[in-house]
């Protein structure tokens, strides 16, 4: 299905090779939120356009996706979008407020509110993401692979109930205990949407996809294994089954559960080719926990990007040498922060490529 789009041949496939456990000619590196607020050219686009307008306009989404690749020798691009486009497509209003972040003015308050979710035609309403992916594959001209992504069910559920970002997730966690059946129903609805959304992205040309369980840190290990992991596994299993039924080649999948390094052995058994690491775990410890057959991605603390160049370079080299060249993709342990000096990205990328 993807082949008929006549995409240019890929020139640098190190990220895909690393994900599959094949040999690479250099350790690949990309950065979460690499197209974003730390770049002045991104801020120029945002000065003229609303955040979700950029997401919904393929030409603008492609422009900001391309911006970091013009500056840095990165080994992958990731389509510019947002995890909250799924709640939007389900009929929940999401606004991006300056200095606040995403706001959902009409959150889910009781199980009765689940009736508000419009589950028909959701993926058609997200077609703009697929259009941006297809356009971006052509614009990249095979320079590097293009990643797609999605928010994971628990993380999306949190935003939909909290009405925005939360430091405690107290309302969403209350749902788990007060409305266990409705919580399960919502997690299943979101899982179904995520599977179809990723299927659409792969059909559109995404060469690898990442599932962001960014709010795993709010759960205990026991809760993570109950509230996140079964749905994350089902995303992988159902997606592979749908791809096979349509005779579409599978692409590598990355699972990133921020704050759930306590469950790396369990994550490693879900079948994802790549497990993303936050900065709270030592590379050698992570490798022991996941075993030799899974690729690791991460895990530099984004705050280290504020260090002087030489110190940052040394820290990056040490990190890469601990992970080694086999089954490793260098990245930060979370998204790059808005005030990060641009020079630090140059240092990071060069240090990764020169480390081994």
Description of the molecule:
With 356 residues, the chain is α/β, with parallel strands linked by helices. The protein is 48% helix and 11% strand. The chain contains 15 helices and nine strands. The strands form two sheets. It has a seven-stranded parallel β-sheet, with helices on both faces. Helix 14 links the parallel strand 8 and strand 9. Helix 8 (153-162) packs across helix 9 and helix 10 packs across helix 11 (221-245). The chain is globular, with a radius of gyration of 19 Å. 47% of the residues are buried. The mean pLDDT is 97.
Write the layout of secondary structure elements.
Elements lengths: L13 H7 L19 H9 L2 H6 L1 H14 L5 E2 L6 H5 L5 E3 L3 E3 L18 H4 L1 H14 L5 E6 L1 H10 L7 H9 L1 H25 L3 E6 L7 H25 L7 E5 L6 H5 L5 E3 L6 H8 L4 E6 L8 H15 L4 E5 L9 H14 L1
Parallel strand pairs: 1-4, 4-5, 5-6, 6-7, 7-8, 8-9
Antiparallel strand pairs: 2-3
